[in-house]
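Moderator note: this is an archived Q&A kept for reference. The question asked for a predicted structure of one protein chain; the sequence and the answer are reproduced below.
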Amino acid sequence: MGLTGSPVTAAGLAEIKPHNDAAIRKGLYQLRAYLLQSNAARGTGKPSGGPPSAGAKRPAWIAGSEPERASVWLVTYSPWSQKGPPTHVRVFAHELKATELLKKGPLPALDRLLVSRRELPKIELPKVMPFPHPSKHGLFGLAVEPLVRDRFAGAFQRPLAGRQRVRRKGPDVLWRELGDLFRELADETGDGYWREVADALPGA
């Protein structure tokens, strides 16, 4: 697949995972679950995949009127170095076919779910502080996930670049419109820069 993709224009969500087979499979099943929850909230199905249920409990991550989440992404990362300990993180943004994710049965391989695959610019790891080694998977993931989220969000700006996030339940990245993605970052991080980006978008 090519390393370029279409800009994000529709409401959507993304999950961030390490770039390995087990984590990718887990991320795909999580995205399927989130899409089923979203459809249930919209009255087009319920988490079991059956007919909608008016009494179904809405997950905490769904607030207000739920839009159709047509833009679905798995964002993966892996440590990188020319030699020695990792100095950078590679980031891959995989745009997925929502309809294929929602089909019953085991999910197919990632390549069969792809709309596009795009490698984003590498993230340079901080040099001024100790950084968890990739062998400490949980600690390394906690340390790099805000940077990866930041890189994914920044890839869809017009010319500018950005900041980080706090952890919460539900999808790792969630937006209704492109401007909402950056406003959410501003609210979660307290960084007014992202709000300026949102306000600068056409139609804001």
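Archived answer notes: Strands lie at 12-18, 71-80, 88-96, 114-124, 173-175.
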